[in-house]
Amino acid sequence: MKESFIAIANGTVFTGDSMVNDKTVLIKDGRIVDLVRPAEVPGDADVFDAAGCYVAPGFIDLQVYGGGGQLFSADPTAGAMDEIASALVESGTTGFMITMATNSMEVVDKALEVLTFYQHEALLGLHLEGPYLNPSKRGAHPAEYIRNPDKVEIASLLAAAKGCLKMMTIAPERFDAETLTLLLDAGVLLSAGHSNASYDEAMAGFSNGIRAVTHLFNAMSPFHHRNPGLPGAAFQTDQACASIIADGIHVDYQVLSISKKLLGERMFLITDAVTAVQVGTYTHVFQGDRYTLPDGTLSGSALTMMQAVANCVRHAGIPLAEALRMASLYPASLIGAQALGRVHAGTTANLVVFDHHYAIKQVFLSGRPHKELRPY
């Protein structure tokens, strides 16, 4: 059954390229029809009055562990995924990779069993952060579950995933080219992180197909003037993008600003968000503006993508349009999702409407409003 038109009027539309003030976003059957003049809106359209707010592509978070009080690794079930997805969409994130940090293979297998059949329009796949990491840069990851890459084990993991494993954080210095190729041939996007790689080791990883860096500066070899490490390689390569956690805690805002100037369009936002939990492998304790393990080790952020965008503008001098690209267009481009991250004719109608104080007023997922439309 065909849906009626939905129109989003009276907003400043960010298309992914520029801000547009005099057009209405016209949606039908989950897709953007076009940006049209108000007089061109069909008379039977359901009209949402954006009331001067921004209308932008929905956010894409390639590293988030939970939401709505649920942590997927602590409760790898379809019910938990429903609650996580609902909370993320409400926060403006219309595309996400559910992420699992290093864990027992039993927990990973249970998660794969769920994700091979679970479907949600906002779910983009699974991001495994580990277990093939460098123990010296494990951060909050438990040492007992960190493993050496093994081709037989990885082949078994890929078979069990049945295509739902879309991204993996690995320590490149622990992999040979043949083992990397096993993952790459399965279509897994590889990201370097929790790594003590030297500059040369990191550059070799990029040359062999690693296309991203996980939470730049956190849990990796440091940038030093005599040993540039993984961050230096990220700055120098043109083959990889880098995610960053823009909460002012994981990375100082001035470092965020400097990194943006060096990386340009290759830097994108993630939340790395967790939630308070007392069961399972990880005990995350909420500290008011972050999460830690009970011993104080930083273990995750309390960010939403909307907050990350606001922090980029308010604290790092990044223009709003560019901060929005970091939260939508750039991660969409990295994963090859051409229908996401843009407000163009034919793209998926995943949209977030927010005011000048960065408060979210409405979210559209595949053209459907998250909240009941207000009369125009």
TrEMBL record:
Keywords: Carbohydrate metabolism, Hydrolase, Metal-binding
UniProt enzyme class: hydrolase
One Pfam family matching this protein: Amidohydro_1
The species this protein was found in: Parapedobacter deserti
SUPFAM superfamilies: Composite domain of metallo-dependent hydrolases, Metallo-dependent hydrolases
PANTHER family: N-ACETYLGLUCOSAMINE-6-PHOSPHATE DEACETYLASE
Entry similarity comment: Belongs to the metallo-dependent hydrolases superfamily. NagA family.
This protein's name: N-acetylglucosamine-6-phosphate deacetylase
Keyword Transit peptide carried by entry: no
EC number annotated for this UniProt entry: 3.5.1.25
Gene3D superfamilies the record matches: Metal-dependent hydrolases (3.20.20.140), Urease, subunit C, domain 1 (2.30.40.10)
Gene: nagA
Annotated NCBIfam families: nagA
Domain Amidohydrolase-related as annotated: residue spans: 54-367
Gene Ontology MF terms: N-acetylglucosamine-6-phosphate deacetylase activity
